[in-house]
Specification:
single chain; alpha/beta; 3-stranded mixed β-sheet; 12 helices; about 15% strand; globular
């Protein structure tokens, strides 16, 4: 397996870097997909990991599909319709499924163009910080294609149906400033500031107890499709686990001590 996804860890924070420089950080390759799944599953098992930053090597965040393979009809792009259907399910669609089971908050540090499936990958993350050099393009229709990786599910939940329709039907670019106005990203910073801004966000998350954050993320994910009653039932089941966490007890004690000192 090649180093298509580079993983670095600093304390409780991991940085995952898409590293497919010869294809503008395309994410459709079998090596990348397998590496991405392995990274998600390993982070889930390691409760020392509190947050993940996902970014791209070089100029691109990700251009999505490999345009050279499309042109040459290689891999899934050269298969017949029935095999392509299976190829999508067992290929690129493994990424949104992995993201849905990822317990760790993921921050997309969008360092450059996020195009097609690359745009969709950014929407699968929990938070997004964009460089001023970044833009987003749900560009499938411009190539006569549709979002095959789940973008039509994620995008409207971020920007609303009308803006998702505009991006999907035109395929036009949305610059970083507009993305901020639309709620597609949480912040826009200079290219030089992006790594530190993403790390500061990760540190803010990592300052909280890991188990509480992971369960809170699961509740947010479930709220996308479940009824209020189902989410309340899940919260009622999870909260006793949080109450038994020694870190919860320690923090309650610390807060009580601070209040007592302030009142004395």
């Amino acid at each position: 397996m090649t180093d298509t996804l580079l993983i670095e860890q600093t304390g409780p924070i991991q940085t995952w870097t898409i590293n497919v420089p010869d294809a503008a950080n395309a994410i459709t390759g079998a090596d990348f997909i397998a590496s991405f799944e392995m990274a998600v599953d390993a982070a889930n098992l390691d409760t020392e990991v509190a947050a993940v930053i996902l970014t791209g090597a070089g100029r691109f965040f990700s251009a999505g599909g490999n345009i050279h393979e499309m042109h040459r009809k290689q891999g899934v792009f050269g298969q017949g319709p029935l095999h392509q259907r299976h190829g999508y399910a067992e290929g690129i669609q493994r990424i949104p499924r992995a993201m849905q089971r990822c317990e760790v908050p993921v921050i997309a540090a969008v360092n450059g163009p996020a195009i097609g499936a690359g745009c969709d990958l950014a929407t699968m993350c929990d938070l997004r910080i964009a460089s001023e050099a970044a833009f987003f393009a749900e560009s499938f229709v411009q190539l006569g294609l549709i979002p095959g990786d789940g973008g039509s599910w994620f995008l409207p939940r971020l920007v609303g149906m009308a803006r998702a329709a505009e991006m999907t039907f035109t395929g036009d670019r949305v610059d970083a400033v507009t993305a901020l106005d639309w709620g597609l990203v949480n912040a826009v910073v200079s290219a030089d500031e992006l790594p530190s801004a993403a790390h500061r966000m990760a540190e803010r998350i990592a300052a909280n107890p890991v188990h509480a954050v992971r369960m809170a993320k699961r509740l947010l994910l479930e709220s996308r499709t479940a009824s209020m009653e189902s989410v309340l039932t899940l919260a009622a089941a999870m909260q006793p686990l949080a109450h038994l966490d020694p870190e919860h007890h320690r923090r309650v004690e610390d807060l009580t001590d601070k209040k007592n000192r302030a009142s004395s």
